[in-house]
Amino acid sequence: MKFPVLAITLDLDDTLWPFAPIGARIDQVLFDWMREHSPATAAMYPVAAMRELRERSFRDNPHLHFDLSALRRLTIQEALENSGASLDLLEPAYEVFYAARNQVECYPDALDALARIAARVPVAALSNGNADLERIGLAHHFSFQLGAREHGAAKPEASIFHAACDRLGVAPAQVLHVGDHVEMDVAGAMAAGLRGCWINREAATWNHPQLQPDLQFDTLTGLADWLDANLDAADADASRST
Q: Which structural domain range is residue 129 located in?
């Protein structure tokens, strides 16, 4: 399928890098830090218990689902309070978490494909998560990063997609959103008037009853190849018409 793409919005977690190993490392790093700085908290909240507390905080605070940093701070604060620890440890503990959260290992195809894509069209990072591309060292590939916390609403809300399009200066119909999640990324983007590209690394079955993605690839390399072919063909058509 060929259609005009003047800019791309790109999801981060599970699109550029897998999140599961990051999540596991975060849990262990935070526990190890608590064991050194607040043994009572570590004793009350080993890894599994802290994970359960975090999941309960998420369930109990739906008004904060767009702000994962605030939810993480709430979890750490509750753990410190329940274990009788000083709240002076809250920000140092959060910084330990956040440093570990930004230690990512990209999928093998991702960095080369991202560089190829960014060389062809502007790319904006659009994420519900709280990764920091400056810390990670990938910000130079992106026009900007727009997170749910900064915007005040999370994907699949149309407003976050439209805000990204506005900052790019490109109409939604000419922006391709790329991500791994059927609802939050592809269906959300298409409902907002963007094109949708599903990065389906796990060979999952598309399960949305009313929509089909405009594009589907199992790697970002597939998207980079399509973009090269699509834009080269558009350039050739433009040359023949002049």
A: 7-17+106-241
